[in-house]
Amino acid sequence: MIAVPNYISPEEYLAIERQSDIRHEYRRGLVYAMAGGTDNHDRIALNLLTLINIQLGDSDCRFHSGNVKVNYQDEFYYYPDAFVTCNPKDRDDRYVKRHPKLIVEVLSSSTKIFDIGKKFEDYRRIPALEEYVLISQETQRVECRRRISTEVWETTIYAAGEQVVLKSIGLELAISDLYRGLDD
Asked: Which CATH number covers residue 157?
């Protein structure tokens, strides 16, 4: 991840982002251009979003792909690969959501360390967030981090042949369903 080296305000970032053909993430005054993903990254995200869509049905919850931003107090604006919000306040802004209960990142070699570390540190500041999920592209491995209390999170790791449980939205799925249709 390469940052644009000049500080910009959240307002400047949002104005630029609405006009840009390239997506950028924002973290404490720095702007990062997002690299393109692989076909397997895209397929894993699509498989997950399909399963979430079926699970949520006609509920009041909404799911989003990597085209809508998640924000916390103007400190960061990220594009998660998938997330779910059930808060009606998140219907007021078509571009930015502030109350996700589930956030999912499909790990890429270029962003893996950031997603596991600093991005999680940022996301966990969102009071509504119940679950943060990291999906590997290299092997059938899903890491679910769940909020137990304000500062305490527990981690469950799922591997090939297991059922993944997304407690925040009441979804249980075979890990093989996430990896269906991938190219070796």
From this structure: 3.90.1570.10
Q: What is the pLDDT of residues 81-127, one digit of tens each?
A: 999 999 999 999 999 999 999 999 999 988 899 999 999 999 999 99
Total domains, the chain: 1
Q: Dump pLDDT digits (tens) for 68-78.
A: 999 999 999 99
Half-sphere exposure of 79 (CA within 13 A, CB side): 20
Closest CA to 33 of 47, 21, 49, 22: 22
- Residue pair 78/25 in contact by the 8 Å Cβ criterion: yes
Asked if 135 and 104 count as a contact pair (C-beta separation under 8 A), the reply is yes
Residue 84 to residue 118: CA distance in whole angstroms: 21
Between β-strands 100-106 and 131-135, what pairing exists: parallel, antiparallel or unpaired? Answer: parallel
